[in-house]
Amino acid sequence: MVSMKDISIACGVSVATVSKALNDHNDIGSETKKYIKKVADEMGYLPNSMAKALKTNRTYNIGVLFAEEAYSGLTHDYYAFVLDSFKNTVEEKGYDITFINSAKARSERISYLEHCRSRGFDGIAIVCADFYSPEIMQLVRGNIPTVTLDHIFNNVSAVMSNNVQGMQELLTYIYEKGHRKIAFIHGADSAVTQSRLSSFYRTAAQLGLEIPDEYISMAPYRDTAATYKETLRLLDLKDRPTCILYPDDFAAFGGINAIKEKGLRIPEDISVAGYDGIRIARHIEPTLTTLAQNTKKLGQKAGEKLISLIEHPKTTLIERIFVDGHVYEGNSVADLNA
Amino acid sequence: MVSMKDISIACGVSVATVSKALNDHNDIGSETKKYIKKVADEMGYLPNSMAKALKTNRTYNIGVLFAEEAYSGLTHDYYAFVLDSFKNTVEEKGYDITFINSAKARSERISYLEHCRSRGFDGIAIVCADFYSPEIMQLVRGNIPTVTLDHIFNNVSAVMSNNVQGMQELLTYIYEKGHRKIAFIHGADSAVTQSRLSSFYRTAAQLGLEIPDEYISMAPYRDTAATYKETLRLLDLKDRPTCILYPDDFAAFGGINAIKEKGLRIPEDISVAGYDGIRIARHIEPTLTTLAQNTKKLGQKAGEKLISLIEHPKTTLIERIFVDGHVYEGNSVADLNA
DNA sequence: TAAGAGTACGAAAACGGTTAAGTGAATTGA
DNA sequence: TCAATTCACTTAACCGTTTTCGTACTCTTA
């Protein structure tokens, strides 16, 4: 690899001059600058990012934490899209993305925070993780600029999919389609679930909907077996709902299967709606009506916030950014007004 | 951050001794070693990976290239699963993963290779990219240990999903279910498509199947609109096939919609099969019969090969590793023998 | 007992950059 | 005309490691 030293020799100047020329400092003559840049270019010079980082304490590298639990990290449509958008945003600003992990060599493990410190990440994004584990707690208290997705910590900026707005909009949409008996199979307990559930109740109250307790139940996210079971239960109710909301799109398929097995048609006999807006939902019949989260904006806002936190630590305030979703109108919710 | 210097002062030894003690060199007394390690631990010492990399020319960082084209990188089930497995494999060996990109700062762009050199990646994995672009060509010729997924370059190790075996197994399975009129809508031209298509023809010949030209057509991968259209064409044929193979699972849904719209049932009236084994395919009705690629093994093999290439450059040979898939037996292919 | 062999550690250079401080020459101002 | 600036560059220290070489001991062994 050609270094500044090589260039300095080739140009007959000191390496300091080379450094300053390449970094456009203004105490270098414009002729010299041009010449040095030209030579550097011809020699195929590339800055050694390790050396630079060592000296400047800036790596231009961002750590991203993805849960290592089965099927909920990289391989989840929602997170993958958010990550993709986040990645594009920060790369545009000259930052790279490295995954945070806790596996060091075969011998000892290290904590997430230790990993980050050792790698010298300028900032970190916690996209998807067990937010209640001690390791995550340690990480967010580690004084590295941080932004979290869909979870709020003290003194840490967060980008949140607006679940309150989302659920309100979705439920209102369904209400306006004439539905009055609406069941909600919500996800396992978490901050996200809390938001959606309370928004569901509040919106229902505002709309004057009566929601019997038996219309509300729980199925873990992405668990089609659980939604299948819960759906059968709902279908067997004396007073069957006209529409069922699922924890997420993927889980909705469990319910859809149960409905089809019962010989019922969607949406003619019963309506369903998901949450997330995964791609496949728009490519099956019936297309799934769902609340599409704005993954692009989520990733983008997270990236922008984090970079701002890194580059202007004093003036950037810790805040919660809520990103609205919108109803994707498939044809899984019948229009009862018609 | 506490450095070796701090430890050396605290212990009353030189930083050389600290370095050697922490790295278990055997010219340090065992007592001293133990003591230094203890102090380092208490002080919360963490090695500065930039300094280490600068000196040793080893970053323990692997660059991964993902296409930046819409919907075909991170957000694709197949690639996401491969990446996940790859990530777990290399992290277990102490390596980190950073995305390769070509966006440097807002001003100038740099090439993939330049990015890799600048970051000092020990190795790179090209998971998903436009393999025919000049930039990729430059990258693979860059003399950094490399492994590619599903594409073969000279002098570069490749891990390949065994499309020949896969298509053979899938077609044979369908044949054994009694199907003789089998159509294949294949993907757009690429090495992968070539393998599948030629394996399709060869297997068909071996099985004594007659494949009329009108049974073969093209639809880009993941393009449901295209498969929808092609499926309608196939259904309108005088001599309609009894089973249709799709480019991939996602694209299969386009076909399935077309079939349903025609009022036909799967698999009673017509059978379909996909390729990939994406998760959702197992959670809808009818569950999709497909060739499930072994993403876990693909990622693992790629990781192992790359690390071997990095750590034993002389003795590791450039090779092509083929990973077999298996038929996932859904219920979208009718058993005509019954 | 003196030469040779270990043993346990330290000094210093090096990796490839950045940057504060210094320097000599040209330019400026009064 | 001469001190004061400004300009354009160099010197040298430093970031946190690793590693070669040297050195002062202690221990063998002939």
Topology:
The structure is a homodimer of 338-residue chains.
Chain A (H helix, E strand, L loop, with lengths): L3 H8 L3 H8 L7 H14 L5 H8 L4 E6 L10 H16 L3 E4 L12 H8 L3 E6 L5 H7 L5 E4 L7 E5 L1 H14 L5 E5 L4 H17 L8 E3 L5 H12 L7 E3 L3 H13 L9 E6 L12 E4 L2 H17 L8 E4 L2 E3 L10
Parallel strand pairs in A: 1-2, 1-3, 3-4, 4-5, 5-11, 6-7, 6-8, 8-9, 9-10
Antiparallel strand pairs in A: 10-12
Chain A binds a DNA duplex (30 and 30 nucleotides) through α2 and α4.
Description:
2 copies of one chain form a homodimer. With 338 residues, chain A is an alpha/beta fold. In chain A, the strands form 2 sheets. A 6-stranded parallel beta sheet of chain A has the order 2-1-3-4-5-11, with helices on one face. Chain A has helices at residues 4-11, 15-22, 30-43, 49-56, 77-92, 112-119, 134-140, 163-176, 191-207, 224-235, 249-261, 295-311; strands at 61-66, 96-99, 123-128, 146-149, 157-161, 182-186, 216-218, 243-245, 271-276, 289-292, 320-323, 326-328. Helix content of chain A is 42%, strand content 16%. In chain A, helix 2 (15-22) crosses helix 3, helix 5 crosses helix 12 (295-311) and helix 8 packs parallel to helix 9 (191-207). In chain A, strand 8 (243-245), helix 11 and strand 9 (271-276) form a beta-alpha-beta unit. The first copy, chain A, is elongated, with a radius of gyration of 26 Å. In chain A, 50% of the residues are buried. The first copy, chain A, starts with a helix and ends in a 10-residue tail after the last strand. Chains A and B meet through helix 4, helix 5, strand 2, helix 6 and helix 11 of A and helix 4, helix 5, strand 2, helix 6 and helix 11 of B.
